[in-house]
Every structure is written in structure tokens, then in C-alpha cells.
């Protein structure tokens, strides 16, 4: 946690979340904030036009970022842990180290394959090779989910919530192809998350934030 709070010291002690609706890292942060029952001041960022106050708080310029009275949290996983260590009514932190192992695999090799598949033009490469690499991870999830409702047993844990936004992105890259794969358990798991009231709540649309806007608290009660 870095401590360059600058002009961002939250008024009234309510932490600020800088977020971008479609970012899977921001989604996982919002999911944990929702599960913890916290409300933050939501500031919607556009990646192509970042608010200077956001860059002041976190010069590396990636979302999500939380500005709390105790400091700035600049990594999505740290934001999840920050929220859940305050309140974890659904025990997402149970088997925490097993979750962290799966998340490291997601954020490393799977995310690399996802980016090169999804943004093949940007990377000038063969998307099918990267799709096949990512599919190895998804096949593994499907076989785990054939045994259990969730990745680490019969209740959702940190791993499920940190990972499904990335599987969603992989699926949406070519939905027809994804739906044709022999991954019924993975599909059930993904659809369960995507149709949950929690996901609907954290995908609410907000206009781009700018300094001087009245505070928007999210998730809304
Ligand atoms: N390791 C960071 C990664 C966050 C990240 O890369 N977010 C993307 C959006 S999904 C971003 O802000 N990119 C900066 C940009 O596109 O300018 C985390 O876990 O929070």
C-alpha cells in the first residue's frame, strides 16, 4: 500500500474506488466490496481519458484503485483482501492460499493467452494458438467443476470471484465458439455468476466521473 494520498484524502472517511465498468480487475474488486457489504465513493474512469485526480493518487494509471484513509491500494487482489479482511460473511477467504495459487495462474499465463487471443491484431500473432493455450486452463476448470459446484469446493471462494470476470472475457471474444466447447460444468459456473444479483449490482452503469461531481456511493443500497 503506498501513501501518496495527495489531494485525494477521502472526505468523511468514505474510501474512493476508481473503476472502469468493463475491466475484469475492477469487476473482481467491486465483487469483493459488494460481498463485504462496504459502500465506497465510486468514480468511473475512462481509460482513454484518465482523470488527473486518479493519476495523482496512482501514477501507474491502472484501475481499480482504492483511496482509503489508511492509504492507496493499487492492485485488484489487494483491494479484494482489504475489503474481505474487514468483513467476509460468505467466507471467501477460506482456503485462501489455494485461491491465491489459482489466481496467480489466472493473472499470469491465462491472462497472457487471453490478451493475445482477444487482441490478436494488436499483438500481430495467431489467435488460435493463444486460444488453445487458454483452453487448457478452461478444460482444467471444467473437470474441477464436474466434481464441485465451485473451484475449491461447494461454496464460492476468492478464486471463483477473482477469476470468473476473465473467463467471461475469454467467452465473449467468440461466444459461438465458446458455447460449442465440451465444457458444460464451466458454462454452468460462468452463467451462474453472470446471472447473479451480485453481478448485476456491480455492473451498474455510471457516467464518467469528474472533479466537483456530487459523490456517488456504490454499490447502491
Ligand atoms: N495488476 C493490476 C492490473 C489492472 C489493469 O491492468 N487494469 C487495466 C484495465 S482492465 C488498466 O487499467 N489498464 C490501463 C490502461 O489501459 O491504460 C490489478 O490487478 O489491479
TrEMBL record:
Signal peptide: none annotated. Transmembrane segments: none annotated. InterPro entries: Glutathione-S-Trfase_C_sf, Glutathione_S-Trfase_N, GST_Omega/HSP26, Thioredoxin-like_sf. Keywords: Transferase. GO terms for molecular function: transferase activity. Residues 13-91 form the GST N-terminal domain. Gene3D superfamilies: 1.20.1050.10, Glutaredoxin. One of its GO terms (cellular component) is cytoplasm. This is Glutathione S-transferase.
Amino acid at each position: 500500500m503506498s501513501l501518496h494520498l495527495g489531494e485525494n484524502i477521502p472526505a468523511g472517511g468514505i474510501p474512493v474506488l476508481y473503476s472502469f465498468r468493463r475491466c475484469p480487475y475492477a469487476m473482481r474488486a467491486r465483487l469483493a466490496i459488494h460481498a463485504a457489504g462496504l459502500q465506497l465513493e465510486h468514480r468511473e474512469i475512462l481509460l482513454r481519458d484518465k482523470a488527473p485526480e486518479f493519476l495523482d493518487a496512482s501514477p501507474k494509471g491502472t484501475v481499480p484503485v482504492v483511496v482509503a484513509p489508511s492509504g492507496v491500494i493499487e492492485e485488484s487482489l489487494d483491494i479484494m483482501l482489504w475489503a474481505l479482511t474487514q468483513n467476509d460473511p460468505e467466507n471467501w477467504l477460506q482456503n485462501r492460499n489455494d485461491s491465491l495459487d489459482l489466481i496467480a495462474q489466472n493473472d499470469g499465463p491465462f491472462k497472457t493467452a487471453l490478451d493475445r487471443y482477444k487482441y490478436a491484431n494488436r499483438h500481430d500473432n495467431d489467435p488460435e494458438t493463444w486460444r488453445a493455450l487458454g483452453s487448457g486452463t478452461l478444460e482444467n476448470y471444467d473437470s474441477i467443476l464436474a466434481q464441485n459446484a465451485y473451484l475449491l469446493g461447494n461454496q464460492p471462494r476468492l478464486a471463483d470471484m477473482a477469476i470468473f470476470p476473465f473467463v467471461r472475457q475469454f467467452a465473449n471474444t467468440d461466444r459461438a465458439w465458446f458455447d460449442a466447447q465440451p465444457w458444460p460444468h464451466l458454462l454452468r459456473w460462468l452463467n451462474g455468476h453472470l446471472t447473479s444479483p451480485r453481478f448485476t449490482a456491480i455492473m451498474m452503469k455510471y457516467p464518467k466521473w469528474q472533479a466537483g461531481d456530487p459523490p456517488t456511493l456504490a454499490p447502491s443500497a
